[in-house]
Structures are given as C-alpha cells and as structure tokens.
Here is the input.
Amino acid sequence: MGLGKNPAELYRAVLAHPGLSFEDLVDNLRWPAERVRAALNECVRLSLIRPSWETPGTLRPVPPDVGLQALLARHEAEILDQQRQLTDARVEVSRLVHEYAEAQRESHHIETERIEGIDEIRSRIEEISHSCQDSLLAFHPGGGQSASSRAAGRPLSKILQNRGVVMHTIYLDSIYNDPESVDYARWLTRSGNHVRTTASLPSRMLIFDRTQAVVPIDPDDSGAGALVFRSAGILANLCELFDQVWDRAVPLSGGKRPRQPAEENELTSQEQTVLRLLGEGLTDEVVARRLGVSVRTGRRITADLMGRLGAKSRFQAGMRAVESGWLGGDDDRDESLDGTADEPAESLEEIPRDASELRGSSV
Here is the structure.
C-alpha cells in the first residue's frame, strides 16, 4: 500500500501508546531523531497520525479501520490506473506490430531493397533467414572467420537445420590458415550442410531459397550497406555465378595440409588466381584481400611465381605464364591445396534447384 517499514513501525507504536510525544517516540523506538521525524511525517501525510487537540505536543493515531481503509482505497485506485495504462499500451503495441507487418509486406514486393548500417543489415538478414525454407547459398570471403561471426552463425545454422534448410557455403582456401575456422566449417558439414573452398571470391553473398539475395554495396566494406535483390533476372545470374564457383571449388578436407612442390608447369588454384588478379592490374593489397591472406603472404606468393617464371616484372610474368600454358585453362588448376587430387567434386545437379527437389533429399 506504499507504507514503508519505518512508518509502519512508528504507526504501530502510536496505536499501542496513544498520547506519546515526539521525544517519547525517540526514546520508545530508540531511533535517531531524524529517522523518527521522517517516519512521522510520512504517517501524517498518509493521514494515519494527527496531533492531539486536547493535549498539544502529543500524537493520536487514526483508527486502522479508517486510516488503512482510506490508504487501501487510494492504492486500489492507483492499480486500476496502471491497468488502464497497460491496456492502452497493449493497444498501441498491437497497432505498431500491424503497421510494421504491413511495411514488411510492402518491402517484400520491392525487387531491390537498400539497407544501410551494420545493425540494420544484421537485422534484415536475420528476418530473411527465419523465412528461409529450403536452401541457403553463401560466399564467405576474407579467409578465417572472426570469433563473433562464428558465434553468431551457430545458433542461426541450427535454426535453419531444424527447418530442413540445407546450406552450401564456399570459403577461401586461406581458411586453412585458421584452425578454429576450419573446425567451424567441419561442424557445418557434420550438421548436414556442404562446404567447399576456392582461391578467391568476388564478394560476400547470401542467396535464400534462390529467390532473395543479399550482397554488400561495397565489396571491400560489407558493413557499409547491402542490397536485397528479388528480381528473377538478377537472381538467375547470381545463382548461375554461385553454381559456377561451386563447380570449380574443392570439398572441405579434414584440416590444413602442406602444399607439395608443384611441377614446373603446374600451378595451385591460389597461384593461378594470383597471376590472373595481377594480370588485371590489381594492387598487392587488393590481391591479398581477395585471397584472404596478409599482404606479406600475397607478396611472397607473387615473388615466388616471378622467380619460377624468371620474370623481372609483373607484365613479363603474365606473358611467360601464358606462353608456359599456366593460364591456359581450368584444367591446369590443382584440385586440392596440397597438389593431389581430392575426392570427386559433387555435381551441380546434386544441388536442389527448387523446393520439391530439396524436400526429397537427405540432409
């Protein structure tokens, strides 16, 4: 009823001994004078104690059946007011939920949606993920995944798995430089998903049910903003890009394996990618970012290639690589990081193209 411990105890003391003075209460309760004064003022405010008319300086209690009943009625009125406020709040929440749902339905009909800010991007991806029913295709550039990214990915992956969604994820070969990222990728495969690696990826990309795709506005800064595509034409091209990269990628191995010395006219997938990127005129920093390695590692790979080619410049290295047949086609690419053939790659036909195929497949 809003009556504190000290006022309640003082009220009991005055009920037991009507006619006490302020000094009597200090002696009776054995409290400091300020404590007694504060409790007494509260009891007077609540109309539980009043000064005596007959004996000035003494105190008289208001009978409990009067004072406490009035206090109880006041407390009941406060509760009723809070209940009215709660009812109004429920109505307002329902209105906001309805407005938000309407806005979301309208945005879902927009073929291209722009999202800005890392918080909004994560929120939007989470919403789309919760509506995903069949498949999630993902490019994950950047090499080893951060601890926060792995921690956020596990619960979402479990939710998708429980709904029967199968994930096909492509990481960079440089993921093998980070054992914790490899362990996470292996956990994905044990959960019924599919993981492959490749030397380079164009950008981060998520494709949900082959009907919605999320890509960053700036490939070098995925937190700057993102675009959500729902256009059938754009989706067809993005899915085709994913399928082509998936077909060339290598299934995840059990862990990091040392690269064996290549033959004189052979290149690993990573080395072939470095030559191609250098041929496009990209800087060491951009090449390293595409590979998901440090700039120092990227420069070491470049220097090793130039040494093997006997080239004094990048242009000369490109010319001699073409003359040597190193950039002559996809067949020159190593099928694994250690230069040995890995398990046969899954056929693209094994990736379900629609809901009916995926629901009939095993996870």
Remarks:
- Residues 238 and 284 are 27 Å apart (CA to CA).
